[in-house]
Amino acid sequence: xxxxxxxxxxxxxxxxxxxxxxxxxxxxxxxxxxxxxxxxxxxxxxxxxxxxxxxxxxxxxxxxxxxxxxxxxxxxxxxxxxxxxxxxxxxxxxxxxxxxxxxxxxxxxxxxxxxxxxxxxxxxxxxxxxxxxxxxxxxxxxxxxxxxxxxxxxxxxxxxxxxxxxxxxxxxxxxxxxxxxxxxxxxxxxxxxxxxxxxxxxxxxxxxxxxxxxxxxxxxxxxxxxxxxxxxxxxxxxxxxxxxxxxxxxxxxxxxxxxxxxxxxxxxxxxxxxxxxxxxxxxxxxxxxxxxxxxxxxxxxxxxxxxxxxxxxxxxxxxxxxxxxxxxxxxxxxxxxxxxxxxxxxxxxxxxxxxxxxxxxxxxxxxxxxxxxxxxxxxxxxxxxxxxxxxxxxxxxxxxxxxxxxxxxxxxxxxxxxxxxxxxxxxxxxxxxxxxxxxxxxxxxxxxxxxxxxxxxxxxxxxxxxxxxxxxxx
Amino acid sequence: xxxxxxxxxxxxxxxxxxxxxxxxxxxxxxxxxxxxxxxxxxxxxxxxxxxxxxxxxxxxxxxxxxxxxxxxxxxxxxxxxxxxxxxxxxxxxxxxxxxxxxxxxxxxxxxxxxxxxxxxxxxxxxxxxxxxxxxxxxxxxxxxxxxxxxxxxxxxxxxxxxxxxxxxxxxxxxxxxxxxxxxxxxxxxxxxxxxxxxxxxxxxxxxxxxxxxxxxxxxxxxxxxxxxxxxxxxxxxxxxxxxxxxxxxxxxxxxxxxxxxxxxxxxxxxxxxxxxxxxxxxxxxxxxxxxxxxxxxxxxxxxxxxxxxxxxxxxxx
Amino acid sequence: xxxxxxxxxxxxxxxxxxxxxxxxxxxxxxxxxxxxxxxxxxxxxxxxxxxxxxxxxxxxxxxxxxxxxxxxxxxxxxxxxxxxxxxxxxxxxxxxxxxxxxxxxxxxxxxxxxxxxxxxxxxxxxxxxxxxxxxxxxxxxxxxxxxxxxxxxxxxxxxxxxxxxxxxxxxxxxxxxxxxxxxxxxxxxxxxxxxxxxxxxxxxxxxxxxxxxxxxxxxxxxxxxxxxxxxxxxxxxxxxxxxxxxxxxxxxxxxxxxxxxxxxxxxxxxxxxxx
Lengths: 474, 317, 275
What we know:
The structure holds 3 protein chains of 3 kinds.
Chain A: E1 19-20, E2 22-24, E3 27-29, E4 34-39, E5 44-50, H1 54-72, H2 77-93, H3 95-106, H4 110-131, E6 149-153, H5 159-172, E7 176-180, H6 187-198, E8 206-208, H7 213-220, E9 227-231, H8 234-244, E10 250-254, E11 260-263, H9 269-281, E12 293-297, H10 301-312, H11 333-348, E13 352-354, E14 370-373, E15 390-396, H12 399-407, E16 414-418, H13 422-431, E17 436-439, E18 458-459
Parallel strand pairs in A: 1-5, 6-7, 6-9, 7-8, 9-10, 11-12, 11-16, 12-15, 14-15, 16-17
Antiparallel strand pairs in A: 2-3, 4-5, 10-18, 13-14
Helix pairs in contact in A: 1-7, 2-4, 3-4, 4-5, 9-10
Chain B: H1 3-13, H2 17-24, H3 32-42, H4 49-61, E1 63-66, H5 74-85, E2 99-102, H6 107-114, E3 120-124, H7 135-147, E4 152-156, H8 159-163, H9 167-181, E5 185-189, H10 192-195, H11 198-210, E6 215-217, H12 229-246, E7 251-253, H13 261-274, E8 287-289, H14 291-305
Parallel strand pairs in B: 1-2, 1-8, 2-3, 3-4, 4-5, 5-6, 6-7
Chain C: E1 28-31, E2 34-37, H1 41-60, H2 63-79, H3 81-86, H4 91-107, H5 111-115, E3 117-118, E4 125-133, E5 136-140, H6 148-159, E6 163-167, H7 174-184, E7 193-196, H8 200-209, E8 215-217, H9 224-234, E9 240-242, H10 258-261, E10 264-272
Helix pairs in contact in C: 1-8, 2-4, 4-6, 8-9
């Protein structure tokens, strides 16, 4: 037996303060209301964090407004660009620290925060930095104008990456921002505030207000906000869409998904299995575009399922800071409860549940990688977003049936297609109602590549040239 | 289908070019980018402390210590034989390597040196490295090596025939060489650098296994692209699937270009997470290498002593 | 001209699925000296069903073909120019409406080139973003410009492959019904454009709340409270909403691409590049 010895990444590289305030107008501001953020892998308290009240949110929006009017909107694009380049460089320099901190606060494996999240964060700032002085060439008119103050609310699944997706394009286009990180994962956003200071970004251009739903509500409904950007659940997205109705606020939403990952009988099977695993178990399945519905062509069902189970048995679940961990901790007790509840419903509705043998730590929030077979479109686990490491396996017979089943959902964020036949890929890609179609790959992200959904998965795109539109008055 | 029933069906595949083509082209494709990403991900595994010590000793036991130079002499081969038996003279706990790998002309020199040591004697044969010789010459080459004491034969396939789609020709040649080997183990060198695509690597692996090869081996070490992690990954998938289909286990040998302990451990991780632990044994996985051994010894010493070692402390045969 | 011949009057009906039904409610209202169908919520329902049924075929039609059909609409409109003038539409607006069809017809096979692009991702992948139609778009037509305004909101939505359910201007619906006759003779498949006359304030909420409508164009909503409630209703299934214009629109001005891109989704396709 090749037992990999523990290979923990050192956490000494991060220096977590016992307590954090709000980052407003370039300074740290104390707040009366506070709460704790914990390490989901062992329930250890990491720090105390402010929860911004309505008046504190108001202060942040005012700071952003002043910075917008006095500094940032007047600054030439090439100067804005240099600030963003500077931020990108500091992120690279502090990459290991950010990765460790992200894994501590979120529970995701260090391999992922180190190799995926943080490099993409830096890349995102680099990419949008370059746009700041080239907006006239982006296809939105000769001199497109910013919107003003952007209120941005981000989720806990990719805390720093979602921050980058929000802040980089907003700043490049000349907006200032007030960003609210998720209440369970505020720490990397707070270090990002330090990075803004280190980069000498003018005060008020970036403001970070930590807190929970009420803070977010105060932010998106603040009359001084010109633009609202939200990533999170469809339910909250709907509420925000209602809240901004009748205003002139521009809104973009990146919401839930229930993506089909479609495997044809002529697929490159070993890579398809990797894609299935990556599709649903990457980041503990806390991914809005996760391939949570596996659609396998019936003629290949046994082979694919056997290969998938064999592969799942190799997944290493445990300490997020261990460099060999594939699946980390579930982000919170509440999320764990949701995953458990939906999984139990799956069993009750008659689907067969399977997990590889896998020892879970005693403390912290953990859920073994799980698949359900015998699932039909009528099962709740085939319709509702579980947002955890739980895969529903369904079958299909023909390409048309695969499309019909894939599209038979109110969501439309992503889809996967696995086949060696090129013309079939293009035929499928044309018909899948999803904002991202991964053919013979899955869960790939790049700052140049627009991301966002159809239907109830939201509207607007983040990333790429298209991502500029959300932050320009066009 | 049971393994034996499949076995009979598999044996039938070799009866014609058409059946071979139908079978080999019916294997699932390999997506290059996906395969390379899987290999790259596995290469990020961090193997430390006890796991590393275990892996280093296993890697030493898997080395086919190789010298395949025009300049090989009996003196060189004798020295290498000694090294194969006792890689680290200063440390009796250091295991011997799996085999010594030489040209057929050197087999008579190595055989007495290795007798009774448990170290296998491998010989390349079949007009290594190009394979461009008549079949009877290749068979004579093989038989001579076995007669002189080689218990493992590393043959090369006819890449020209393979790339031209003459699968039956390649198949028949492997069958004939296997027959000429008698009791010796047959490693079939695919020369993956010349096959160019992973689809070809997968097909050639199956072809070699169907024809009776005991091992599939990546490379001669004589063309620019030798063993790579993703090529080895694809071959490991092939032996895994072949065992599932036929019940027969076939070994894998990456050769050429594996020079460091770090590299060797990456290969072991790929073995572990692709074919599985059944292959983590010198009977089923080998490294065709020469300089790798000294790096393994250096790292082994470092782990034991806690300080970095230097090349002066290891033999340079 | 004096004639003893009795004129044949036109019955102004709805336009749903390529047909001209009366309102299922049997109601009509007197406007512009004519009896015009007063659409009900069930007509909205039927129109959405027709529009949804038409999505697959229309969005699957080649861009070239869609362009030809829109150009055909311009041809037909040119031929009926006088009818619109007789309905009280200023000649300049009728001409502009004809030209607007021509403008959008030409966009059919260009918008994907202008609004889509290849993305140079940092890896061995083909990556292409292309616009696709959103689906069924509910439109409240501008009341102040019954022909040009109507064409200016319908043409950009359908040229990219969407289908529409349009609520015509309440006070001046005849141009809309006559335009339906133009469209019915333009090779436009039934259901791509559905036009409901009547009171948008009554029907728009049904359209906004309909879960099988993907987007909402509030171009013609002039009541802020109504606009807000429609936008709120639209949130239920995350409809894309184009809000009423903040300032009065000059429908004769260069329309730009905004009314097309408002009802487009961007689909990004990845594929590895390898041998």
